[in-house]
């Protein structure tokens, strides 16, 4: 099952490394690709999505712009304290439209997913939607 | 309201006054180091600059990097990918001005093809009798490189805020340009 909007299911963005009050991190999980979170300079950038309960995740789909390299880590405890690497993804540069990529997580179980953008194709990157296939 | 963060490289030949300017930026013009102490590595200063007429600000992470050739290679490893560049030369040294194009090449090699806004700063404007570089020549070269030109005197605390404000403004307008581009993107549906 694919949940394009995570927020009604109790998921939260518990941390984001940048903030522009017009483009809050909640935009990542509202299911709407027209709203977005934007980084405000320098790399790496990261955000952490926390789920209401431990969740088995087959894949995540990330819609973003100007992201070059993304690392995903997971945490399985309640307090987001210990993250272990899950996967990495290199994005192709796009012009005029969003990057979109389904990234397999092989049914891994997690309470938090941490997305680390280590580099971008521009000074600023945006993340429009993260949806989870469980 | 938004707080932007920019990695600002401070480069130029040895002894042109990069660290003195950096101190000046950091201390809001109260501290001029009278004794010369050569920077042999990389020093980091953070300076927050408010953008006038907005609630926005830019945190400049100023990377003051040694100018002496012997140390440059080691320092370059710490540069990362710059957001901004502040290129400094000594108005009383033609040689330090000539080196500027070489410094720009180095900075570009680290920018991965990205546009890096910047300023060219002719320092030591207090030593007018010993001036070797004419403002018009520096101005013209700066323009050809897409840099804004300033003359400062870290010693006399003259005009030291101007390059900082220019850098912050350049980054701020770049951000808004990019935001607009992102807002005009087509969603994947």
From TrEMBL, chain A:
Presence of the UniProt keyword Metal-binding in the record: yes
Location (main, coarse): other
Record-level GO BP terms: intraciliary transport
UniProt KW keywords: Calcium, Cell projection, Cilium, Metal-binding
Gene Ontology MF terms: metal ion binding
Superkingdom, taxonomy of origin: Eukaryota
InterPro entries, per the entry: FA58C, Galactose-bd-like_sf, IFT25
Location in or out of the cell: Cell projection, Cilium
Cross-referenced Pfam families: F5_F8_type_C
Coiled coil: none
Function: Component of the IFT complex B required for sonic hedgehog/SHH signaling. May mediate transport of SHH components: required for the export of SMO and PTCH1 receptors out of the cilium and the accumulation of GLI2 at the ciliary tip in response to activation of the SHH pathway, suggesting it is involved in the dynamic transport of SHH signaling molecules within the cilium. Not required for ciliary assembly. Its role in intraflagellar transport is mainly seen in tissues rich in ciliated cells such as kidney and testis. Essential for male fertility, spermiogenesis and sperm flagella formation.
Name this polypeptide is given: Intraflagellar transport protein 25 homolog
Native species: Myripristis murdjan (pinecone soldierfish)
TrEMBL record, chain B:
GO cellular component: intraciliary transport particle; motile cilium
Phosphoprotein as UniProt keyword: no
Pfam families, per database record: Ras
Compartments reported by the entry: Cell projection, Cilium, Flagellum
Keywords: Cell projection, Cilium, Flagellum, GTP-binding, Nucleotide-binding
GO molecular function, one term: GTP binding
Gene3D superfamilies: P-loop containing nucleotide triphosphate hydrolases (3.40.50.300)
SMART domains: RAB, RAS, RHO
Signal sequence segment: none
Keyword Nucleotide-binding recorded: yes
Source domain of life: Eukaryota
Family assignment from sequence similarity: Belongs to the small GTPase superfamily. Rab family.
Protein name according to UniProt: Intraflagellar transport 27
Gene source species: Myripristis murdjan
């Amino acid at each position: 099952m694919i949940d394009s909007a995570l927020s009604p299911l109790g998921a939260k963005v518990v941390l984001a490394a940048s903030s522009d009050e017009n483009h809050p991190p909640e935009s990542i999980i509202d299911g709407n690709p027209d709203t977005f979170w934007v980084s405000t300079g320098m790399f790496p950038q990261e955000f952490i999505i926390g789920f209401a309960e431990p969740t088995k995740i087959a894949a995540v789909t990330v819609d973003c712009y100007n992201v070059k390299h993304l690392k995903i880590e997971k945490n399985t405890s309640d307090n987001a304290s210990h993250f272990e690497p899950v996967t990495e993804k290199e994005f192709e540069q796009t012009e005029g439209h969003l990057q979109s990529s389904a990234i397999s997580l092989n049914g891994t179980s997690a309470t938090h997913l941490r997305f680390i953008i280590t580099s971008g194709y521009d000074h600023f990157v945006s993340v429009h939607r993260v949806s989870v296939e469980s | 309201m938004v707080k932007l963060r920019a990695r600002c490289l401070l480069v130029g030949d040895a002894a042109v006054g990069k660290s003195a300017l950096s101190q000046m930026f950091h201390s809001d013009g109260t501290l001029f180091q009278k004794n010369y102490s050569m920077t042999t590595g990389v020093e980091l200063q953070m300076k927050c600059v408010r953008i006038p007429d907005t609630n926005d600000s830019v945190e400049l992470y100023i990377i003051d990097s040694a100018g002496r050739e012997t140390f440059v290679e080691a320092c370059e490893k710490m540069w990362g990918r710059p957001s901004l560049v502040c290129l400094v030369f000594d108005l009383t040294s033609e040689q330090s001005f000539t080196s500027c194009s070489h410094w720009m090449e180095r900075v570009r090699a680290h920018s991965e093809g990205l546009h890096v806004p910047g300023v060219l700063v002719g320092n030591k404007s207090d030593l007018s009798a010993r001036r070797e570089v004419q403002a018009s020549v520096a101005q013209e070269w700066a323009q050809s490189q897409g840099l804004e030109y300033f003359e400062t005197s870290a010693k006399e605390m003259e005009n030291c805020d101007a390059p900082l404000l220019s850098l912050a403004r350049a980054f701020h307008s770049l951000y808004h340009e990019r935001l607009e581009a992102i807002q005009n993107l087509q969603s994947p549906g």
